[in-house]
Specification:
It contains eleven helices and 13 strands. It is of the alpha+beta class. α5 packs antiparallel against α6, α5 packs across α7 and α8 packs across α11. The termini are far apart.
């Protein structure tokens, strides 16, 4: 590296050529750790000299340096936060072992901005960028890096080369720091309407993060679940129409003549005694108790000769052709079986 260290021969240091650090045109952000600089031949004293007030470099986070003056770009801030969080990451064990902890990833509002949420603020407007790390990491929130710990690290998504938390986890981390009900509702609504994730996945993350005891979050979650069910019902209507299934009776209640109610279903073909029910259970409820209720209802209907097809919002979105085939098979099989018990069908 062609530079003169400070103090040698009384000469002032010459600017460090960026070529050894970024030899390719259009290389990535000029953000490096102290260790990476040492690997490029820049010792600690030289780094400190260049990061002095008014110098050509600056330390933006502990052990992380920006190799130009002036404010960092949004991309440089993201990389600085990730480098800070990974700077003391435990090394991979020797002798063929593998690390047990996942690497850091961007979460919270910054992650939602990377997921292209229009309701998330622009990256440059964020005072802090949240970074998700394993709970055992000894890191502190400092500067524009806000450390968030996870009991179990999710699998990150790569967006423009940046590891980003999946939408449900990013939403939970963002909402945990928000108090404005309108902002929370806008974020949750966009998550479902924009097809980023299912409502139940969001509620599951919120339940694990213990956010469901905050009134403004509960109200937004109730609206989210209603939104998710409405979208799932719309996909079921579209499935029946697009794949040429016979028209069912929509959203009806079943009851034995003169007897008790059997429960509601989302679609029912009375001639074949086939029902479709959307399973949109909210994870904040007692899953075991709720599933037992679903199972009892299904068993009761099937004892009466009614075939019940369960679908989920996710399968309606991701595998409509497969779900249509399941319903069609149930309708065809019913034509070869004895008719089921007569039931009264009422609007729900």
């Amino acid at each position: 590296m062609n530079h003169t260290s400070p103090g040698s021969g009384g000469e002032s240091p010459t600017p460090l050529s960026p070529l050894p650090l970024h030899s390719r045109p259009g290389a990535g952000p000029r953000v490096l750790t102290t260790r990476q600089l040492r690997e490029h031949g820049v010792d600690t004293s030289e780094t400190a000299e260049r990061c002095r007030p008014g110098g050509p470099w600056q330390q933006v986070l502990p052990g992380v340096h920006l190799l130009h003056p002036g404010p960092p770009t949004s991309e440089e801030r993201l990389h600085a936060v990730l480098l800070y969080a990974a700077n003391r990451q435990p090394a991979v064990p020797a002798q063929g072992g593998t690390a047990t902890e996942g690497g850091p990833m961007i979460t919270g509002l910054a992650a939602l901005a990377l997921h292209r949420f229009s309701s998330a603020p622009p990256l440059l407007s964020l005072d802090r960028i949240e970074v998700l790390v394993p709970r055992t990491r000894r890191l502190r929130t400092i500067g524009f890096a806000r450390v968030v710990r996870a009991q179990v690290m999710p699998r990150p998504q790569q967006i423009t080369g940046v590891p980003v938390a999946p939408v449900p986890r990013a939403l939970a981390d963002a909402v945990g720091a928000l108090t404005d009900a309108c902002t929370v509702r806008r974020l949750l609504t966009e998550a479902v309407r924009g097809g980023h994730c299912e409502a139940t996945a969001v509620v599951r993350e919120f339940s694990q993060a213990r956010l469901l005891n905050q009134p403004h979050v509960v109200d937004a979650v109730d609206a989210l679940l209603a939104e998710g069910r409405a979208l799932a019902e719309g996909r079921l209507y579209e499935l029946v129409r697009e794949y040429g299934l016979p028209d069912p009776l929509w959203n009806v209640e079943l009851r034995l003549p003169g007897g008790p109610h059997l429960g509601g279903v989302d679609a029912y073909w009375p001639e074949q005694a086939v029902a479709v029910e959307i399973d949109a259970r909210a994870p904040r409820q007692d899953e075991d108790a709720l599933w037992s209720e679903y199972a009892r209802k299904r068993e009761h209907l099937e004892r009466l000769g009614i075939t019940v097809v369960h679908v989920t919002p996710r399968t309606l979105r991701d595998a409509p052709e497969q779900q249509a085939a399941v319903v069609r098979t149930a309708l065809m099989a019913a034509d070869d079986e004895d008719p089921g018990t007569y039931v009264v069908v009422l609007p729900r």
